[in-house]
Design brief:
seven-stranded parallel sheet; alpha/beta; 13 strands; Rossmann fold
């Protein structure tokens, strides 16, 4: 008989919160984690699910495991993320080949695949705003390229009868994550963040609504060939968010002396790109250009909470203050 749910990426930020939600609702589920994962990183799910130690890059072992196990639903979140220095083959094996093995397993066993992609398929800065289902893909980093390839693989198997749903979260914020939101708070705290002197709108996602989207997609009846963008209901002005962070840290707005011409950002981005510093190039673009998305379909179909980046972002600021013992 098929088991209930398989979850990959359970120790990552999104996967960890999805696992907690499955545990809270008493689901029968299994998780795949890297063989070298420390026990303390698994303490939050210990005795609540079956833990399989397997590297997604090892597609032969993954194929053998899937051949001997059937699942009604596979939530595939695990991936090699952007910004990490891995060989191109490692990105391809973990992000594309592993996805194909999982898609084939779902197709052969009449299971449902809920796949975590990224709004990064539209590039760091989308070619149109708001970006939506018809926006052109841009493979501007190796990570984004492999997510596009993985989506193409899934679409191929959908044509053969695969029941799959693609989820594209934007940059996600919450406690216990050291990504872009944490870095933003740190730079504001140290007054090291320089901002463009023009309005920039950005679009983040509260981890609670991202995890809820995955949970609801496990529950809902399958709708053919659906891709959802998950983000807070509306974008925010970066200036407003930075002032919100500064006020919560030190009870005053961010210094206006840290605002510089957008021309300087263009020059810095061009310099980084010239020398092949793609990740730095994208970080510069993220704070000097607008990026926001049409997430209305997800709200309409999944009845997600209308998260508001301001004031919800206080979760990140208060967590930052706690771990750095700031009063």
């Amino acid at each position: 008989m098929p088991k209930s749910i398989l979850l990959t990426g359970a120790t990552g930020f999104i996967g960890r919160n999805v696992a907690r939600m499955l545990s809270a609702r008493k689901y029968d589920y299994s998780v795949i984690v890297r063989p070298e994962t420390a026990e303390k990183r698994l303490s939050f799910i210990k005795d609540q699910c079956e833990i399989i130690r397997l590297n997604l890059e090892d597609t032969d072992s993954l194929s053998a495991f899937l051949a001997g196990n059937r699942f009604r639903t596979i939530i595939h979140i695990g991936a090699l993320r952007g910004g990490r220095r891995f060989p191109r083959k490692a990105y391809y094996d973990a992000n594309v080949k592993a996805t194909e093995q999982i898609a084939l397993s779902c197709l052969e066993n009449d299971g449902k695949l809920v796949f975590c992609s990224s709004v990064g398929v539209f590039g760091a800065i989308p070619m149109e705003l708001p970006a939506g289902g018809n926006t052109e893909f841009q493979g501007d980093t190796l990570y984004h390229q492999t997510k596009i390839q993985a989506e193409n693989v899934i679409q191929k198997y959908i044509m053969a009868g695969l029941k799959a749903i693609i989820v594209r979260p934007t940059i996600t914020y919450g406690e216990e994550d050291f990504g872009f939101p944490y870095t933003l708070v740190k730079l504001v705290h140290r007054k090291l963040l320089f901002l463009p002197d023009t309005d920039v709108r950005i679009h983040l996602a509260n981890i609670d609504i991202v995890a809820s989207a995955f949970y609801k997609l496990v529950e809902v009846e399958y709708r053919k060939n659906t891709a959802y963008i998950i983000a807070d209901r509306y974008p925010v002005k970066l200036h407003d968010l930075v002032d919100f962070i500064s006020n919560r840290l030190r009870q005053k707005p961010y210094p206006r002396s840290r605002y510089i011409s957008r021309t300087h950002f263009r020059r810095m981005a061009a310099f980084a790109l010239r020398y092949g510093w793609v990740n730095l190039h994208n970080r510069i673009k993220l704070i000097s250009n607008s990026w926001y998305y049409d997430s209305s379909e997800a709200f309409n179909d999944l009845y997600l909470r209308h998260a508001k980046t301001i004031p919800d972002f206080k979760l990140v600021v208060d967590w930052y203050k706690k771990i750095h013992k700031i009063r």
